[in-house]
Design brief:
The complex is a heterodimer. Chain A has helices at 39-49, 111-115, 146-150, 163-175, 179-189, 203-207, 214-231; strands spanning 4-15, 22-33, 69-72, 75-78, 91-95, 101-104, 107-109, 124-126, 136-138. By secondary structure, chain A is an alpha+beta fold. The N and C termini of chain A lie far apart (66 Å). By secondary structure, chain B is an alpha+beta fold. In chain B, 28% of the residues lie in helices and 27% in strands. Classes of the chains: A alpha+beta, B alpha+beta. The interface between A and B is large, with 59 and 58 residues.
């Protein structure tokens, strides 16, 4: 087995009694692992073997739960499917996901993402497979927040609802049981926080680990909103 | 004032137990040392068993498994791909197993349909052409993080307090049982006392028990799983033979998961890695059922330690489904009243394990009249968790 040396440079953040006081600094951890080992594998090694205080989120280890998003060498990615050997160098810098409140080290509060994703919006869809029977599968979106982190327009205190929510609206419209339901969703998409604020950076689709293609869905919403306006 | 139950462990068992206990009127505080479901629960391959897998050697367990399958489909439909499963015979030995398999399913009242090779391949073109026959069963696929999260979301909406990144580092006696938790987000230790403390820490339950000075028969049993790119099947595909390694192939969104291997370890997480040779072996086994998995790009390969309740004889324990877990009252076994441990269980029987554990909590507290209500109660969708009701500010 050919192990390789990597240095994980992790931004550590500690908070004091009052949340607005915090100190943040980088700490380097050297690891020897196979190049196929992931960022998450390395974090686990460090936590288990060296520093139980290293804080990060993880659950499924296979890009299903969406909890392990962080900035890896400046790019929003899932730690569990980012292989160290694919990053082009020994030094791997890890920081908390951009645009979310850091709760400590790589742990962020994903609350703002879910504020614009109502619990009742659906997560199942018809499967595309060509089979004799119709099948249901879970939607691609694993609600990891990487698209929102990557979007230069979305962020704390800004009005744009962001690519995850707009992509979800577009999926809901496609599945909408009735025209009134679709119309209400289109109101949202076409409203003051919606698609008009998208500036077509396409970073959302670039970072999405699950093939949601939010930029394409936002473009579809833009067309639908345009058609509705023409119809008025 | 309702009794306070402190639960150690934010895995499937802890989440379902919090939900059950809150439903019976208890105050609940759940302490999880990291992210929710970051142990065995979250890393589960996602197969929601029909129970058919147990039908040959334990029809009673199979029947209860099927009952839980049906319950979860009713109470948490949002986390399930309800596409049934196939048990596929690849050789003569598998074919010979079919009769016993069908008889066992019939005894367990699990609906089955026997399919010819042609029918099976028409239903699942991705199956190996060697498939001789298949049996269709009501398996399904679950989202391993979101299914148990719906239990916790519901519990939190009803007042359960949950602290993540709060690791139990010791036990205290303050007129009743309690723990010291290291809150790693707030950066300080805190004491949490209750009327009962339940150790539901999964593969770490032995370590937690040791902090309390009691021993616990839990053995970490790790395994490797692999997810490849592409949804190569729509149904859960199992090999029609006695359970063995690498004999399930499960779709999940647009990935296909092959599982799993199994070995025994001494530590819940030290030294666990998905070695390349293990991964290749699993893919080779999975490819016997679904050839495409050996050609597809690997998306992820990971390891998880299941918590096995050591000392149980799976085939002969009288307690049916509960044969795979134990609920221990340390007041009876170790002279530590007020401390219970729940050991073992499977990801998809979390509700049933929690029911039995909650019954035990009630017995301990002299409240046997409090009844479980989780069988029929629809759960909140998992996103409800993020509405902030569960998190306790430091």
């Amino acid at each position: 087995m050919t192990a390789a040396r990597f240095v994980l440079r992790v931004r550590r953040t500690r908070f004091h009694e009052h949340e607005h006081e915090h100190e943040s600094s980088f700490q380097d951890f050297e690891v020897e692992v196979e190049p196929e080992a992931t960022v998450l594998d390395a974090l686990e090694l460090i936590r288990i073997g060296r520093d139980p205080g290293l804080r990060y989120r993880h659950s499924c280890h296979h890009a299903s739960c969406g909890t392990c998003g962080c900035q890896v060498n400046g790019v929003a990615r899932l730690a569990c499917v980012t292989r160290l050997g694919d990053l082009g160098g020994e030094l791997v810098t890890l920081e908390p996901l951009e645009g979310y409140r850091c709760e400590g080290d790589l742990v962020v509060d994903p609350g703002p993402l879910f504020r614009d994703l109502p619990p009742h919006w659906t997560v199942l869809r018809e499967s595309e497979g060509r089979r004799p029977e119709a099948r249901t599968r879970l939607e691609d979106c694993i609600e990891c927040g990487c698209c929102v982190a990557a979007c230069p327009v979305a962020g704390p205190g800004r009005p744009y609802v962001g690519p995850a929510a707009l992509a979800a609206i577009q999926r809901e419209i496609e599945k909408a049981p009735a025209p009134e339901a679709a119309a209400a969703l289109l109101e949202l998409a076409g409203g003051p926080r919606g698609e008009r604020l998208c500036e077509r950076f396409i970073d959302c689709s670039r970072v999405c680990p699950s093939g949601v293609a939010p930029a394409r869905r936002i473009a579809d919403l833009r067309r639908r909103v345009g058609r509705r306006l023409e119809g008025e | 004032m309702a009794e306070h139950v402190v639960i150690i462990g934010g895995g499937g068992t802890g989440a379902a137990l919090a939900h059950d206990l809150v439903g019976r009127g208890f105050r609940v505080t759940l302490l999880e040392r990291g992210e929710l479901f970051s142990g065995a629960t979250g890393r589960h391959h996602g197969l929601l068993h029909s129970g058919a897998r147990y039908a040959v050697h334990d029809p009673a367990a199979a029947r209860e498994c099927f009952a839980e399958n049906q319950i979860l489909r009713r109470i948490a439909p949002f986390a399930i791909e309800p596409n049934d499963g196939l048990f596929v015979a690849l050789d003569e030995a598998d074919e010979a197993y079919a009769e016993a398999f069908l008889d066992g399913c019939a005894a367990a009242r699990i609906p089955t349909r026997r399919l010819t090779s042609d029918d099976a391949l028409a239903l699942e073109p991705g199956l190996a052409p060697e498939a001789r026959l298949a049996v269709r069963v009501p398996d399904a696929t679950v989202d391993p993080f979101r299914l148990p999260l719906s239990f916790l979301a519901t519990a939190a909406a009803r007042g359960a307090r949950v602290r993540r990144f709060a690791e139990v580092v010791g036990f205290v006696e303050r007129g009743g049982p309690g723990v010291v938790a290291r809150d790693r987000l707030a950066g300080r230790d805190l004491e949490v006392t209750g009327d009962v403390v339940v150790n539901a820490a999964g593969a770490w339950a032995g370590e937690v028990a040791a902090l309390a000075g009691v021993s616990l028969p839990v053995r970490p049993a790790p395994g490797v799983m692999v997810a490849v790119v592409g949804r190569h099947v729509e149904m859960a595909v199992n090999r029609l033979h006695p359970a063995a390694e690498g004999d399930i192939v499960v779709p999940q969104r647009r990935l296909t998961v092959v599982g799993a291997s199994l070995w025994l370890a001494d530590h819940p997480e030290r030294g666990l890695a998905a070695r390349r040779d293990e991964v290749e072996r699993l893919l080779e086994l999975g490819a016997r059922l679904v050839p495409a998995v050996a050609r597809a790009k690997v998306r992820a390969a990971w390891c998880a330690a299941r918590p096995l309740a050591a000392g149980l004889d799976d085939g002969r324990d009288a307690q049916q489904l509960t044969r795979s877990f134990r609920c221990i009252d340390h007041g009876e076994t170790d002279g530590r009243p007020g401390l219970l441990s729940v050991v073992g269980g499977k990801a998809t029987t979390l509700r049933a394990v929690a029911e039995a554990a909650a019954d035990r909590v009630c017995a301990t507290l002299g409240r046997p009249e409090l009844r479980c209500a989780t069988r029929d109660e629809p759960l909140l969708p998992p996103r409800a968790w993020f509405e902030g009701r569960g998190e306790v500010a430091p």
